[in-house]
Amino acid sequence: MFRFPLKPVELEPATIGADGHFLPSRELTDGRTVLSRLGRLMLVLLLGLSFIINNPLLLLLDVLVLIVLGASWLWGRFCLVGVTYARRFATTHFNFGEETDLWIEVVNAKPLPLTWLRTEDAFPNELKVQSAELSYVGHEKKQSLINLYSLRWYERVRRRYRVVGRQRGVFQVGPVNVLSGDLFGFRLRRSEMDYQHRVVVYPKIVPVKNLNVLAARPVGDFKTDRRITEDALRLAGVRDYRVGDNTRHLHWKATARRAALQMKTFDPSASQQIMILLNCQTLERLFDGHVSDFLETAIVVAASVANEALEERRSIGLATNAALRGSKQWMHVPASRHASQPLQLLEALAQIDVPPLIPFEDLIRLESARLPYGTTVLAISSIATDPILSGLLDLRSSGHPIGLISIGRQPTRSIPPQIPYSVVTENWTDMTSIDLAFGK
Predict the structure, then answer these.
(1) pLDDT at position 393, please?
(2) Burial of 266 per CB tally in 10 Å (0-12, 13-18, 19+)
(3) Which residues are 114's β-sheet partners?
(4) What HEC string does the chain produce?
(5) CB-CB contact of 78 with 190 (8 Å)
(6) What are 12-17's contacts with CB under 8 Å, separation 24+?
(7) pLDDT at position 267, please?
(8) How many whole angstroms separate alpha carbon 318 and alpha carbon 310?
(9) Fewer CB atoms inside 10 Å of the end CB: C or N, the chain?
(10) For 70-125, how does the pLDDT look when each residue is reduced to its tens digit (9 = 90+)?
């Protein structure tokens, strides 16, 4: 949790807008300055007059006014001194649709109580704060979580909220404006803090059915149709020793039991290494903008396929023709099934930014040079142009099983029979599962 002391800025002229937000007013400034000078002059004259005419009621009135003005000055000068503001999330990384706790804490660490204190904490629209009404205050794309407090001396107030991620992405919470002043409204002070939290919402993940992609690499965890070599990790049985057999595969227990040399036999297998190529270009011309729903659906499909493959202990990687936020290089995550791979893939998908940097067919060509022989390639794209289909056929000719997942609509071009493909037309907001069922 970060705790920020406030640096107050006195706002001599001030008005409160219709929404309650502080608005500076130049006209009111000049008027208040004149009135303030006239008021001080009148107090001096009344004080002198009360002594001259020996009027105790006039003197009492003058003293009361002086007390009010003194209290107003004291509150206006020191109201934000010793005040700290803190914001803490239970976690700043969570999945789409999940909830996390948010604590807002304000401390008045001085002997002067505060009759009122107002905080305006800017939140992006993609984060929903439950049990709170957010208002638009000075930000076009952000709402503000507004809190009002009345703090005694040395008092700490903490409020708890639940925050829900309504869309994947990386969001900034903040900055914070803090307002306070005297009880009478004569003086206001505001502190503006560039106090921000970075919140990451991972993409939506749904179950995937019929992820029946093929493997072609000759050594690994899954059976293959091509009997090229044997996997020493998959014991199938034993047989008698033959001249030329590798003695490292002797089965000593079976040899002792049968009093004859026995050899281990193994199943042929293939490594299920999958590379997802995600196309963030949703229209055929690269700089014509993008269809947001198509892009988000493609990201949900990529996240769901990657999650399903990792749960089946397959090695999975990801590349896209768009960049991560703040980067100038297209995103590439090497294939792996390490325990940290799910987090790396979700972090990358959450940070994808548009527009794409290069056409998808160029990404296919560049990534093909990195792929180990036999890696299965799954292309996820809302468009299927001739260069894209040609690039996939070149991958197939190089020994890579391929598959195409079309997003949002049926392909406008005829898909070659050598490319198995599936179509996902359901929008990501309504998606509860994905049935790929690759056709040929």
Answers:
(1) 95
(2) middle
(3) 151
(4) CEEEECCCEEECCCEECCCCCEECCHHHHHHHHHHHHHHHHHHHHHHHHHHHCCCHHHHHHHHHHHHHHHHHHHHHHHCCCCEEEEEEECCCEEECCCEEEEEEEEEECCCCCEEEEEEEEEEECCEEEECCCEECCCCCCEEEEEEEEEECCCEEEEEEEEEEECCCEEEEECCEEEEEECCCCCCEEEEEECCCEEEEEECCCCCEECCCCCCCEEEEEECCCCCCCCCCCCEEEEEECCCCCCHHHECHHHHHHHCCCEEEEECCCEECEEEEEECCCCCCCCCCCCCHHHHHHHHHHHHHHHHHHHHCCCEEEEEEEEEECCCCCEEEEEEECCCCHHHHHHHHHHCEECCCCCCHHHHHHHHHCCCCCCCEEEEEECCCCHHHHHHHHHHHHCCCCEEEEEECCCCCCCCCCCCCEEEECCCCCCCCCEECCCEC
(5) no
(6) 12/187, 14/188
(7) 52
(8) 12
(9) N
(10) 666 777 778 888 899 999 999 999 999 999 999 999 999 999 888 889 999 999 98
pLDDT of residue 253: 85
Residue 21: per-residue pLDDT:
35
Residue ranges of the chain whose pLDDT lies below 50 = 1-35, 215-229, 268-270
Q: Could you tell me the pTM of the whole model? A: 0.73
User: What pLDDT shows up at residue 33?
Assistant: 38
Tokens linked to 337: 């099934």
- CA–CA distances in Å: residue 320 to residues 200, 344, 348, 363, 405: 19, 14, 10, 7, 14
Q: Is the Cβ–Cβ distance between 381 and 280 less than 8 Å?
A: no
Q: In the numeric block, which tokens belong to residue 286?
A: 């690269």
Contact 2, 87 (CB under 8 A): yes
Q: Dump pLDDT digits (tens) for 71-83.
A: 667 777 788 888 9
Residue in the structure block whose two tokens are 């829900």: 164
Residue with tokens 């033959």: 242
